[in-house]
Amino acid sequence: MNSSRISRVVQILTTLQAGKSYAVGDLSKMFGKSRRTVFRDLKELRAIGVPYHYDSKTGGYTIEPGFFLPPVDLNLQEALSLLLLVHKASKQLQLPFKSSALLAALKIENHLPFKIRKYCDTALKHIFVRPGAQAPMNSLDVTFAQLQKAITKKHKVNIRYNSLSAGEVVELVLNPYHLLYNDRAWYVLGYSSLNKSVRIFKLNRIRKLKTTEQGFIGGEDFDLSDYFGRAWSMIPEGRIYNVKLRFLPKVARNVTEVQWHSTQEVTRNSDGSATVEFRVDGLGEITWWILGYGDQVQVLAPKALRERVLEKAKKMIKLNEQI
Questions:
Q1: Distance (Å, rounded) from C-alpha 56 to C-alpha 160?
Q2: From CA 320, how far away is CA 323, in angstroms rounded?
Q3: Nearest-5° angle of CA 60, CA 64, CA 70?
Q4: Are 255 and 290 in contact (CB under 8 A)?
Q5: 7 SS3 class
Q6: Which value, to the nearest 10 degrees, does the dihedral of the CA atoms of residues 64, 66, 67, 72 take?
Q7: Residue 48 and residue 150 share a domain
Q8: Are residues 89 and 34 in the same domain?
Q9: In this predicted model, what pLDDT tens digit does every residue of 70-95 receive, in sequence order?
């Protein structure tokens, strides 16, 4: 929902909570919206779990008593940061249980002092978050909840997984250790019976998931930071490389404004370019990142990385020349 609609939904919540029954026509006149819009707003409330009901005798709607939280003592900055996180920042990530998060925010917003609620409403209308690319997943809530429960209770899960590396759907038993979000998608990490080692599986490639009654031992002390080590993103290859790149002036500033890796070191050159160095485990992931900068980056070291980038670039040229 956009901020103006969120504001209206909060106002409808406040109105219905007053204990009086309101017909759709009443709400339509009150908020200056069509009956169709009011019905859509009521449907949105139902979708996120607000237990209002229709009284056939009065022809109006009310919210069940005792549903909302008691008044919340938040100052202006606390309230705005919380609502900003739920209404705006959450759109940047494909979070599970978004409806529940929105409902929680609406409950809190409904009990804020009028002046704070009014200020937050105005502020949110002028804040825009542009979501990045996301891996779509229609059943994220169900899959996430099932895996989270299995991790908590330390139960093994059976998985049918669309493996890109194997080029087919594979079956395995997983001891799930952690759920993690990285860049564009959610993953589960754990010990795989198929690979006989700890592996990472993308949630939207899971075709079937079944929790077993069989428990597993271990995993509670598994350190994600230690596992990923100095991987560029999330695939360590077992060898550390000293990577040295020179970014041309056109992109140098944009590149160096971001902390891409924990080992990053930047040297700004007199010609406006920038030399950026990393100590990275593996070359696969960083190769694709470098290619994204096209003709604005030079690979100074190591030679193996430069050769990889050249090979990919030549194949790209050849592929596009065939069109």
A1: 49
A2: 6
A3: 130
A4: no
A5: helix
A6: 140
A7: no
A8: yes
A9: 556 788 888 888 888 777 766 666 77
